[in-house]
Amino acid sequence: MHLVRFSDPSGTIRQGTATEDTVAFGDQQYARDDVDLLPPCEPTKLICVGRNYADHAAERDSAVPDRPLLFLKPPNAVAAPESTVTLPAGKERIDWEAEFAVVIDEQCRNVAADDALDVVRGYTCLNDISNRDDQDREQNWVRGKAFDNAAPLGPVVATPDEVPDDASIELRVNGEVKQASAIDQFYFSVSELIAEITEYMTLEPGDVISTGTPAGVGALSDGDHVEVEIEGIGTLEHDVAIPDSD
After folding, report:
1. Is 75 helix (H, G, I), strand (E, B) or coil?
2. pLDDT tens, 224-237?
3. Is the peptide bond before 155 cis (omega within 30 degrees of 0)?
4. Which residues, including other chains, have CB under 8 Å from residue 81's CB and lie 6 or more apart?
5. How far is CA 214 from CA 121, 181, 199, in A?
6. Of 115, 92, 90, 94, nearest in space to 105 by CA
7. Is the Cβ–Cβ distance between 219 and 95 less than 8 Å?
8. CA-CA distance, 184 to 77, in Å (whole number)?
9. On the chain, which terminus has fewer CB atoms closer than 10 Å, C or N?
10. Is the pTM value of this prediction over 0.90?
11. Distance from CA of residue 82 to its chain's centroid?
12. Where are the beta strands (DSSP E) in the chain?
């Protein structure tokens, strides 16, 4: 099942289900083109994982860490699918990063790895947009990772039965493939990440764990069209606007 949040033609926010061409709420069905898709969950926080693919660690000239490298994105970073995301002006390099994201279904703390998948609502696509100018100067990555629109999310939450253990992940910019890998290339598994994170913090329903990006990151430009496609979930699409610096 694919779970979706959307604004119906009257402007009412609904939670329903989606197919490739339609969304439904109860006995009401709409063409996708007739509704506005919203981020498929409303996280209180996004917990992101750095360097969880060895090939991406190598392209960033870094080692894979001996425990998950964690950082946070706040709710203001979330951007809707099919939107135009406005990014900070005056930066030399703001990168795309396709990521497989885990949506939490219940409040939880101190979850054992063996039980971790019990607290998962499903999976979605995320673009961990990264301002390298400031990220490379900081230790806490607030300017680099937490700016408005830094986490386009969606378009749906796919229930776990929909997503293969080796699901492919691909990012395209203006139709050109830039990243291509599979989630079985994670260094730390979803279960390991949930166990590690909940040792330190409580997760709330709708919170998101973004599991890291494969090799192939690169700089976004004004006017780019980005697609993040994950097998079993679908395709997150968004456009990019980068204002001229004053």
Report:
1. helix
2. 999 999 999 999 99
3. yes
4. 37, 39, 152, 153, 154, 155, 236, 237, 238
5. 24, 6, 26
6. 115
7. yes
8. 27
9. C
10. yes
11. 14
12. 2-7, 13-18, 22-25, 28-31, 36-38, 46-50, 69-73, 78-79, 84-86, 94-96, 98-104, 120-127, 130-131, 151-158, 168-173, 176-182, 208-210, 218-219, 225-230, 234-241
Instruction: For residue 35, give the nearest of 53, 16, 62 by alpha carbon.
Output: 16
pLDDT bin (cut points 50, 70, 90) of residue 94 is very high
The DSSP code sequence of 196-232 is HHHTTS-B-TT-EEE----S--EE--TT-EEEEEETT
Which pair of tokens denotes residue 160?
């776990």
Sign of the CA dihedral running 184, 47, 6, 214: negative
- Alpha helices, H only, 47-180: 54-59, 132-135, 142-145
Cβ neighbors of 195 (< 8 A, separation 6 or more) are 111, 112, 113, 116
**Could you give the CA distance from residue 65 to residue 85 in angstroms, rounded to a whole number?**
31
